[in-house]
Amino acid sequence: MMTNKAAAEAGKAHVRTYLGTPTDLKHEAVREIAGGLKSVLADVFALYIKTKNFHWHMSGRHFRDYHLLLDEQGEQIFAMTDPLAERARKIGGNTLHSVGEISRLTRVADNDAEYVTPEDMLAELREDNLALTARLRAVHAVCDEGNDVATASLLETWIDETERRTWFLFEATRPAFGHNS
Q1: Residue from 137, 113, 118, 115 nearest 43 by CA
Q2: pLDDT digit string, tens, across residues 23-63
Q3: CB-based contact 162:136 (threshold 8 Å)
Q4: Which residue, 175, 42, 54, is CA-closest to 122?
Q5: Is the model's pLDDT at 179 over the cut of 90?
Q6: How many C-alpha atoms does 71 have within 13 Å on its Cβ side?
Q7: Is 43:109 a contact under the CB 8 Å cutoff?
Q8: What is the per-residue pLDDT across 84-129, written as a single tens digit (0 to 9) for each?
Q9: Cβ atoms 37, 93 nearer than 8 A
Q10: Looking at residues 155-160, what average pLDDT do you find?
C-alpha cells in the first residue's frame, strides 16, 4: 500500500508525463513562475468579474462614460486570461482548474453589495488595478531570476495596460481638477 507522500509523488509524475512540456528553464524556476502566473490569473479572473459587476450595475449622471469605460477595461482584463494560462503551460507548468481554485488564490476582494456608488466602484477598481500592477511586477522579478524573458515580456505589456486602467480610474475619481492626492 502506498503512503500519501508516495501517492502524491506518483500523481506528480503522471501529470509530468501527460502534461509536461520541454523547456530549458530550470525546474524550480518553472515551478515558481507558473505558480506566480496561476495566482495572477486568479486575480485577473476575479478583477474581470468585479469590473463587469460594476459595469452592469453602474448608474448616475456619468452612466454612459463609466459604463463604456468599464466595458472596455473588462475586455482588456479578460484578454489577459488565455495568454496567462497558456504561458504557464508553455514552460511546463500548470494553471487554474476551477472556480474554487480561483477563489482560494485571488487577493481581489469580492463586492456583491446591492448598491455601490459610481465613485466607490471606480475607486475600488482603481485600487484593485494598482494592487494587480504590484503582483505583476513581483512575478516579473521571479521571471528575471529564472531567465524567462518571454514571460517577462508579456508581463511588461500587462503592467503597462494595468497602469493605464489605474490612471483612467484615478482621473475619473479625482476629487478636484489639478489635485493629485
Answers
A1: 137
A2: 768 899 899 999 999 999 999 999 999 999 999 999 999 99
A3: yes
A4: 54
A5: no
A6: 9
A7: no
A8: 999 999 999 999 999 999 999 999 999 999 999 999 999 999 999 9
A9: yes
A10: 98
CA-to-CA distance for 91 and 70, rounded, in angstroms?
32
pLDDT at 108: 98
Please state the pTM of the whole predicted model.
0.86
Q: What are phi and psi of 113, to 5 degrees?
A: -65, 150
Distance CA 70, CA 76 (A): 10
For the chain, the distance separating the N- and C-terminal CA atoms, rounded to the nearest angstrom, is 63
Identify which has the larger pLDDT, 154 or 7. Answer: 154
CA geometry: angle 164, 167, 169, nearest 5 deg:
110
HEC sequence for the chain: CCCHHHHHHHHHHHHHHHHCCCCCCCHHHHHHHHHHHHHHHHHHHHHHHHHHHHHHCCCCCCHHHHHHHHHHHHHHHHCCHHHHHHHHHHCCCCCCCCHHHHHHHCCCCCCCCCCCCHHHHHHHHHHHHHHHHHHHHHHHHHHHHHCCHHHHHHHHHHHHHHHHHHHHHHHHHCCCCCCCC
How far is 140 from 156, CA to CA, in rounded Å?
A: 8
